[in-house]
Specification:
Blueprint: H1 13-27, H2 32-36, H3 43-50, H4 58-68, H5 73-86, H6 96-102, E1 105-110, H7 121-131, H8 137-150, E2 161-167, H9 169-172, H10 178-195, E3 198-202, E4 216-221, E5 228-232, E6 237-240, H11 243-259, H12 263-284
Parallel strand pairs: 1-2, 2-3
Antiparallel strand pairs: 1-4, 4-5, 5-6
């Protein structure tokens, strides 16, 4: 068994919070199972909090304070960790960036928009303008910075294995002007090549397919925690770790993968579309 990797409390407020939680738990001589006993939460959930990957809910913070005799420390500070994690992200999404960085594998299904980990700055800004035209400029800037910061995981020494499935309409119906759309597609191709990641395109001719009735879905697995499925709509999202639901999404994603074009053909389609938009932009100039 590999040595346990202790959380680095200097990385962020949630990581500091989680490192302190582990320190206090081990100081009290309690295992994860013993600390979580009597709460409504699972061992894997508490473990992810200790690693700075999940937000501490107030009910669990109160339970932890009572078990550890920490005089309300974790309940008082769980709001600080939540706010730190939330900067630039909606509250319901606050846990996901840290989970992405800690994941062993990430599989994205993107029927309507380019996955966040692959978006360029112009794409993020145009997406905000289209979906939230009322968003103040300062708030939009925070969202852009937070979205682009997620892509730093591509520079991690131990980055997740990544697989994405996109609908063909994402490249055929451009959200951006030709030059910027070419930049976006070239960026996707560059990330796929440089990280040995996999991308597939689901053809527009494929009308019926698994996961066709929902929005964005992301399956994440971890080296030392159960898998999580993230599902998202316009203004809400939910992390699912109930094993039967995770298994259903796993089965659906695998069937969707089988319905999509092979990776080589999909990447060639991305690169061909990028050249087409680049030529169109040059003709306009």
């Amino acid at each position: 068994m590999p040595p346990r990797k202790d959380p680095d409390g200097s990385v962020s407020v949630p990581c500091f919070y989680g490192a302190e939680l582990r320190y206090k738990r081990e100081e009290a001589g309690l295992t994860l199972e013993q600390l979580v006993e009597g709460s409504y939460r699972g061992v894997s959930f508490l473990s992810q909090i200790e690693r700075g990957e999940r937000r501490m809910p107030e009910d669990l913070a109160r339970h932890v304070d009572q078990k550890l005799g920490t005089d309300g420390f974790f309940e008082r500070r769980c709001e600080d960790a939540r706010k730190a994690r939330q900067v630039g992200h909606p509250s319901y999404y606050a846990d996901i960036p840290e989970m992405e960085k800690a994941a062993a594998t990430i599989e994205d299904w993107a029927p309507y928009v380019v996955p966040g980990l692959l978006q360029t700055e112009p794409y993020v800004r145009e997406l905000i303008r289209a979906v939230k035209p009322w968003e103040p400029a300062a708030a939009a800037d925070k969202t852009v910075r937070a979205r682009l910061a997620r892509a730093r995981l591509w520079q991690q020494e131990e980055r997740p294995t990544y697989w994405a499935i996109l609908r063909e309409s994402l490249i055929r119906n451009p959200l951006l002007p030709p030059a910027q759309m070419a930049d976006q597609l070239e960026h996707i191709a560059e990330v796929m090549h440089s990280t040995q990641s996999v991308l597939q395109i689901l053809p527009e001719t494929t009308v019926g397919h698994p996961l066709m009735t929902g929005g964005l879905a992301k399956i994440m697995t971890f080296a030392d925690a159960p898998p999580v499925v993230w599902v998202e709509a316009d203004f809400s999202g939910e992390a699912l770790d109930f094993p039967p639901l995770v298994a259903a999404y796993r089965k659906s994603y695998d069937r969707l993968r089988a319905a999509a074009l092979p990776p080589e053909a999909s990447l060639a389609m991305i690169e061909d579309a990028a050249r087409g938009y680049r030529n169109e932009a040059q003709k306009r100039n």
